[in-house]
């Protein structure tokens, strides 16, 4: 085996140009794989993040009613699954407007427990300068567009009027910018007890919201785990069931990325296989003499398997460097803000596939060399 | 002296089972004594190379048997034959057949490494000594491709001896060398024959070369035509 390895090494080194060309072929394949893989997965991550990163990924509501004993429910949910990152109760009413002098704007009034809700909505990073998170009764923060439409500023006292609830005066402590006009136009955030006070139903919330560690497990793992502990009167919805078209898009992307990667591997395998097949012919004299001197057929074929492995290993290493270089150049010089995502596991997988593919490609030349008969070589010497 | 190799009614037919089978060897009976220095001559197409390939277990006879000492080669598997070749035979071919990717010393060591034994200092010394004997002591670390034809052939001779084989088979070992070098190579083979008691079977078409050996066997039309011992 040692001998076969050494012969393989020498054969490769003896025809440096040919070896280099094969290695470069593999390297280009691996680098394309790394580049496309990283690009697609980066795009997907940022798309998922932009779509559901700042919203509830699983929501529990009670049909046509408020959730009464919500603190117990929050505790139950928190213990239901390891995948749950954060749980927060939220109370909402849409039945009211903010009124400032002559102007009136219909709003969505959301009451949050900010310590946990901030992990989902990341309010603190979205506040405009000088703004604060509401933390006392009747303090509110508003979507940035309401500042313009109502003509108010931090410190303004504004009244909340509703056909069904009693009028209430709020103190504006800040504005936030979600970069989504539907939210910036209508959201008014405050503490839970502010909203509870308006609604006057006691200690209730509208829904329990949560975010997950592994977002794609929402439907098939976490929802099932929740269903075993949460009573039937509650309805559990996940982001997946509400974003089917997004998911279909992501899946299409994944499949096309996979197809590209498979074809790259196929072309690499064909390339190595045909070049090594020629090498067997080139080296038939050497194989003939080795066999005359008594090398076993198995060892003779190992020579070419090792050639495949060596080519694969060096091709993979150079390919990884090339791929990372390509990604670096792309992020640095393309001028776009396209996110790139890859990790050690993905790189190892690409390299591993290349090495396995090269070894497989060497299989048919290896078999050919083991079948080569000494007599043929010597007679045609 | 005892026989080291015995051929019993060896026949060889190429293309058996086809429309035009060609019989190349007809009932060849031969035996070779230990430490003898033999030559096989014959015109091209006489079957002498086929005979050497069969003796060298590179090819199997269609019928008949070959005994090495008392062991029948017909019973050995492909794997056992490879081991037999490695252990007991040394080959010198007409076209040198060194591995061009390796140095002279590495080429000499190749049959030893094929036997899967560890390289020891003794073996390295022996390889160097063999290269000294063939007059290439200063060329040990030169790549085989950088050696002249005569030098390559001498490396091949050193290589054929590394495993202390009982028999060295040479197929036109001087076929493409000039007459001076041819002379030197034969003297070398003769010297090795004396020194290590190695049996030599040399194929040649050159009668002047054959006349210097102890026994000349002429093959004609696949049969032993002449067998002259001195």
Topology summary:
The complex is a heterodimer of chains A (381) and B (230).
Chain A: H1 2-14, H2 16-52, E1 58-62, H3 70-78, E2 84-93, E3 97-100, E4 103-106, E5 108-112, H4 114-121, H5 123-126, E6 139-143, H6 144-150, E7 157-161, E8 168-176, H7 181-186, E9 187-191, H8 192-199, E10 207-212, H9 218-229, E11 234-238, H10 239-242, H11 244-282, H12 284-292, H13 297-333, H14 344-361, H15 363-371, H16 374-380
Parallel strand pairs in A: 5-9, 6-8
Antiparallel strand pairs in A: 1-10, 1-11, 2-5, 2-10, 3-4, 3-7, 6-9, 7-8
Helix pairs in contact in A: 1-13, 2-11, 2-13, 2-14, 11-14, 11-15, 12-16, 13-14, 13-15
Chain B: E1 3-14, E2 22-33, E3 37-41, H1 48-55, E4 63-68, E5 71-72, H2 78-88, E6 89-92, H3 104-114, H4 121-133, H5 149-161, E7 167-171, H6 179-196, E8 199-204, H7 207-210, E9 215-220, E10 223-229
Parallel strand pairs in B: 3-8, 3-9, 6-7, 7-8
Antiparallel strand pairs in B: 1-2, 1-4, 4-5, 9-10
Helix pairs in contact in B: 3-4, 3-5, 4-5, 5-6
Please give a structural write-up.
The complex is a heterodimer of chains A (381) and B (230). Chain A has helices spanning 2-14, 16-52, 70-78, 114-121, 123-126, 144-150, 181-186, 192-199, 218-229, 239-242, 244-282, 284-292, 297-333, 344-361, 363-371, 374-380; strands at residues 58-62, 84-93, 97-100, 103-106, 108-112, 139-143, 157-161, 168-176, 187-191, 207-212, 234-238. In chain A, helix 12 packs across helix 16 and helix 13 (297-333) runs antiparallel to helix 15. Chain A is built from 16 helices and 11 strands. An 11-stranded mixed sheet of chain A has the order 4-3-7-8-6-9-5-2-10-1-11. In chain A, a hairpin with a 2-residue loop joins strand 3 and strand 4. The two termini of chain A are 27 Å apart. Chain A is 60% helix and 17% strand. The model of chain A has no long low-confidence stretch (mean pLDDT 88). Chain A folds into 2 domains: 2-49 and 247-379, no CATH class; 63-233, no CATH class. Chain A is α+β, with helices and mostly antiparallel strands and 381 residues long. Helices cover 34% and strands 28% of the residues of chain B. With 230 residues, chain B is of the alpha/beta class. Chain B contains 7 helices and 10 strands. The model of chain B has no long low-confidence stretch (mean pLDDT 88). In chain B, strand 4 and strand 5 (71-72) form a beta hairpin. Chain B is globular and about 50 Å long. In chain B, helix 4 (121-133) packs across helix 5. Chain B starts with a strand and ends with a strand. A 6-stranded mixed sheet of chain B has the order 6-7-8-3-9-10. Classes of the chains: A alpha+beta (381), B alpha/beta (230). Chain A binds chain B through residues 3, 7, 10-11, 13-14, 285-286, 288-297, 299, 374-375, 378-379, 381, and chain B through 49, 53, 56, 58-59, 78-79, 82-87, 91, 93-95, 97-102, 110-111, 113-116, 171.
């Amino acid at each position: 085996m040692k001998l076969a390895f050494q012969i393989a090494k020498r054969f490769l080194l003896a025809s440096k140009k040919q070896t280099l060309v094969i290695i470069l072929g593999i390297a280009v394949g691996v680098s394309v794989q790394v580049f496309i893989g990283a690009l697609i997965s980066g795009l997907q991550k940022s798309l998922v993040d932009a779509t559901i990163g700042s919203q509830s990924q699983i929501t529990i509501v009670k049909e046509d009613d408020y959730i009464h004993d919500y603190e117990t429910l929050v505790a139950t949910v928190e213990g239901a699954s390891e995948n749950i990152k954060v749980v927060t109760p939220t109370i909402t009413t849409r039945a009211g407007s903010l009124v400032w002098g002559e102007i009136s704007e219909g709003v969505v009034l959301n009451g949050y427990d900010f310590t946990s809700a901030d992990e989902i909505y990341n309010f603190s990073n979205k506040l405009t300068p000088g703004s604060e998170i509401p933390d006392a009764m009747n303090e509110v923060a508003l979507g940035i567009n309401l500042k313009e439409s109502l003509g108010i500023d931090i410190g303004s006292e504004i009244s909340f009027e509703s056909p069904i609830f009693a009028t209430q005066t709020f103190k504006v402590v800040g504005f936030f910018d979600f970069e989504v006009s539907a939210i910036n136009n209508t959201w008014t955030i405050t503490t839970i007890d502010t909203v509870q006070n308006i609604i006057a139903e006691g200690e209730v919330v509208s829904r329990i919201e949560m975010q997950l560690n592994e977002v794609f497990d929402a439907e098939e793992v976490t929802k099932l785990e929740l269903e075993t502990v949460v009573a039937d009167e509650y309805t559990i919805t996940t982001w997946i069931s509400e974003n089917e078209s997004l998911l279909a898009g992501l899946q299409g992307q994944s499949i096309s990325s996979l197809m590209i990667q498979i074809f790259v591997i196929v072309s690499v395998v064909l390339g190595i296989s045909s070049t090594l097949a020629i090498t067997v012919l080139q080296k038939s004299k050497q194989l003939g003499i080795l066999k005359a001197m008594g090398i076993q057929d198995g060892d003779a074929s190992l020579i070419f398997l090792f050639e495949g492995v060596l080519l694969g290993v060096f091709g993979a290493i150079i390919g990884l460097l090339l791929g990372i270089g390509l990604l670096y150049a792309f992020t640095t010089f393309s001028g776009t803000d396209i996110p790139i995502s890859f990790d050690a596991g993905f790189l190892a997988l690409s390299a591993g596939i290349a090495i396995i593919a090269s070894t497989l490609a060497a299989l048919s030349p290896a078999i050919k060399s083991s079948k080569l008969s000494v007599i043929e070589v010597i007679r045609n010497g | 002296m005892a026989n080291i190799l015995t051929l019993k009614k060896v026949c060889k037919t190429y293309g058996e089972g086809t429309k035009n089978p060609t019989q190349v060897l007809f009932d060849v009976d031969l035996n070779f004594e230990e430490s003898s220095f033999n030559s096989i001559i014959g015109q091209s197409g006489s079957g002498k190379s086929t005979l050497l390939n069969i003796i060298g277990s590179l090819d199997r006879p269609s019928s008949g048997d070959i005994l090495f000492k008392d062991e029948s080669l017909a019973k050995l598997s492909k794997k056992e034959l490879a081991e037999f070749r490695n252990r007991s035979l040394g080959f010198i071919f007409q076209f040198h057949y060194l591995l061009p990717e390796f140095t002279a010393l590495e080429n000499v060591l190749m049959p030893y490494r094929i036997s899967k034994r560890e390289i020891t200092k003794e073996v390295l010394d022996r390889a160097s000594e063999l290269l000294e004997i063939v007059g290439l002591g200063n060329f040990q670390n030169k790549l085989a491709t950088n050696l002249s034809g005569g030098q390559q052939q001498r490396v091949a001779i050193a290589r054929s001896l590394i495993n202390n084989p009982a028999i060295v088979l040479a197929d036109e070992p001087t076929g493409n060398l000039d007459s001076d070098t041819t002379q030197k190579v034969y003297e070398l083979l003769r010297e090795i024959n004396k020194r290590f008691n190695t049996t030599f079977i040399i194929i040649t078409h050159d009668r002047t070369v054959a006349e210097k050996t102890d026994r000349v066997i002429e093959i004609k039309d696949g049969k032993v035509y002449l067998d002259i011992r001195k």
